[in-house]
# Entry
Amino acid sequence: MVDISTPPGLEGLFDLDRKGVDIRPTLLRVLTDQYLRTSVHTPDEERHYTKLAMRLIDETDIATRAAVAARLAPHACAPRAIMLQLARDVIEVAEPVLLHSPCLTPADCEVISRERGASYAEMIARREWPAADPAPPAPAEPVAAPETDADATVAASDDDANARELCELFFAASSAERRLILLGLDYADWPADEPVVALQRADIWRLETAALRHHTATLERELERALGISHRQSRRIVEDELGEPIVVAGKAMNLPGDVVQRIVLIMNPRVGQSVDRVFELASLYNEISVDAARRLFAILRAAEPAAPRTISDSRAIYEAAETARQALSDLASTLSRKSAAAQRRTAGGRES
# Structure
């Protein structure tokens, strides 16, 4: 029976296939870094991060848990439940929390000392508590330190590094691990931006037609245009043998499920050869959220920004569109002439 406290979509989170690269440690680090980007969180943000992080902590190695404990320990915004869990972990993990976490109270430390024994009590004895001051002077009006260009550059650099790491992990991961990443992105702090281009019916038709005709280059260009990704990323998505990237792209663009299924089946022969794989990808499309899919593409854009279009690019696109329109117009005229000629022949035959 599923625990009703389990966030939707996470019921089978840790029953996944563990073959291949285990992305749990990196996913935990990345989600923690994203959480700490801001010092104020909504109750929903804290609750989502806490539930996912505590599950991942249970499934990661000591080195990863120690690294996460060291990252969270100095921050007052760190979720208290996570800090209490880490404070009771092995001593290598618990040390930074016991020494530095402002989330622990003297009562917490007393309980931990009794539960965990002498080595934890000795660690807590080294902790420096803030001096009590029953009548502190009134603080001066706080003045926020302005963010410097260097601060902004460092923050952007950290985000880009996280994005590149998670991007490469996603493409290197197995199907089960990709599902884990996508489920985790429901609770990440990346923005779930709308697609760069709001798709119209004609855009969906172009995507599906490009797939039906096996026009790989056209499909790649449409993905670049709609999702704002680089050409290399669009090629990786289309050429990926497992099929998840194109499914996630369809979800991010909010394409109808049957359209996405046809694109995958036509563009990916390996998927088309396995009925089970088709059902797995259809299930993934229904299981992941639009926000999670859009967060993945925000990460892909941060990992490798698309090259800005030049005037010549725009002109080429315009000329290609005009050529296509003219071809459709010529085809319509030809069909109209053939239909009129056929009607005349039919009428002539009746008169004779």
About this structure: Confidence is low (pLDDT under 50) at residues 1-19, 133-144, 310-320. The CA atoms of residues 44 and 196 lie 27 Å apart.
